[in-house]
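Q: What structure does this chain adopt?
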Amino acid sequence: MSDTLPREYTFSGLTEGQSKITVITGSGIDVEAGLPSFRGEKGYYEDREASYLASVEALNSEPVRQWRWYLSRFVSYHATPPAKSHFSLAELEANKGENFLGIVTQNISGLHSKAGSKKVLEIHGCIHEMRSLENGECKPLPKSWVDLPPEEKELKYWRPNVCFIGESYEDYPLPESIEACRKSDVVLVIGTAGVIHTPVWLAEEGRISGAVVVNVNPNPGEVDRVSDYTFRGTASDYFNFNL
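A:
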């Protein structure tokens, strides 16, 4: 664990300071709530079948099968409570007010919103929503689908509102995420390996615009190379770290 992080970039230091902050989160923070990551041991991407079902290829060739897989994940996510780290970010937002520019998350779990965060930019969508294939309208998945899987005819005109592997960010809040990073004094990156390049690129956009990038991750990764400070620990370690 890092012990060289300046106090102004600790959780308490950011809370007390006047810096404008954007947070970028990956699956590492959701692991604390008991959800699997996409990379690493038991991660979704270690399962070839899961990688396929999370792809635009599956959407085009086997949309119903893909739907069934996402619905099985939704049911398992439905009752999952946020971890303490999700609540810590909601607390940071509440304390910072207008100086908190948003949470840019790769996660589709919806746990940031469930924890009370308001400024959440879900760049990969949300597993709790579906999108019309006819007009792009988004709406929450019916609660009835939690208890009883829908018939195929109910799925026909909808798709999960998540960004599939191989799909563009056109229907997701990437422009807002770029703007938030560019306007920040501090970009705090939590729990992403950076194998998917987007969080690395967003952090770099912030840094080019003058932000200090603070990277929280227990393992080395691609985000390290664009970070001013790297904290070698989990999200929970970071939020409990004091100087």
